[in-house]
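Trying the structure run again after the queue cleared.
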Amino acid sequence: MFSTFKKKTLKKAIKHTALPGILSDFDGKPKTIGIVIEKSEVAKVDELIQTLREHGVSAERIHVLVYTGLTKAKQLLDPSFSLSDFTLTGEVKSQAVSDFIAQPFDWLINFYAKDIVPLLWVSAKSKAKFKVGVATVTPKINHFSLDIQELQASQYAKHLMNYITIFKTK
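Done. C-alpha cells:
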C-alpha cells in the first residue's frame, strides 16, 4: 500500500518538473556522464562504459546509479537505490541519490526501456545539461531519445555518438 502511495507522489513530482532547454554553449563533448540504469540491465554497464571510453570519455568521469526495485538488494554495488529510499511525501532519503541528482553532468544517459517511476523521478530531477534516453520511455524527461529495438549498450552508445556528431555539424 505504501509503495503505491509513494509511486503516486513521485508521479506527481515528475509531472510538475519541466525539462530545461539545452544551453547555447552545448558542444556535445561530455566531460562527465551520469548513467541511470535498472538492475536487470546492470550487466551491460561495463560495455556501455567501454564504448564511451572509446569515444574519449574518461571512465573516472562516468557515474552510475542503479535502481534495484522495491527494496535495496545488498549484493549490488553502490550507489544504488530503491523505492524504500523515498518518503511518503516523495522526498529522497538516500544521500547517494541526492548527490547524483545534484551533480551537473554534461550528459545523463537514462539506460532503461520501461517507465519505472523512481527511475523517471531521478531522471527528471537530475541537474544534467543534456539528457538522453530510449524512445519507449516517457519523452518529457529527455532532450533526445533513441528508438532502438533492444537495449544493447555498445550499439546505443555508438548511435548516440553519431547523432551528437550530426548535431554539432548543424
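Residues 2-15+30-169 form a domain with the Rossmann fold fold (CATH 3.40.50). Worth checking whether this holds up in the mutant runs.
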